[in-house]
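Hi all, long-time lurker, first post. I run a small reading group and we've been trying to get comfortable going from sequence to structure in the token notation. Rather than ask abstract questions, I figured I'd post a concrete chain and ask someone more experienced to write out its structure so we can walk through it together at our next meeting. Sequence below, copied exactly:
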Amino acid sequence: DDFKKLTFFEGGKAKATSGAQDKGQRRQMQRFVAACRGEDLEARQADFERAIQTTRVCLAAVRSMRGGAE
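-- Answer (accepted) --
Happy to help. Here is the structure in token form:
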């Protein structure tokens, strides 16, 4: 069922729930089209800056594990 169903137990009884699975493709395409149109530039800049900061933190962690200080 591709993880679309959840079964949990409460009071000794099994309860199941199911729902649609959002994998994000629709939102990804909407953002791509908006970027092609030149829309939402501030959000894309913020995403890029967060990605750079995340990369810097990861690289600093690797250097630290190898014995360097940062």
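A couple of things your group might point at:
The first strand starts at residue 5 and ends at 10.
The mean pLDDT is 85.
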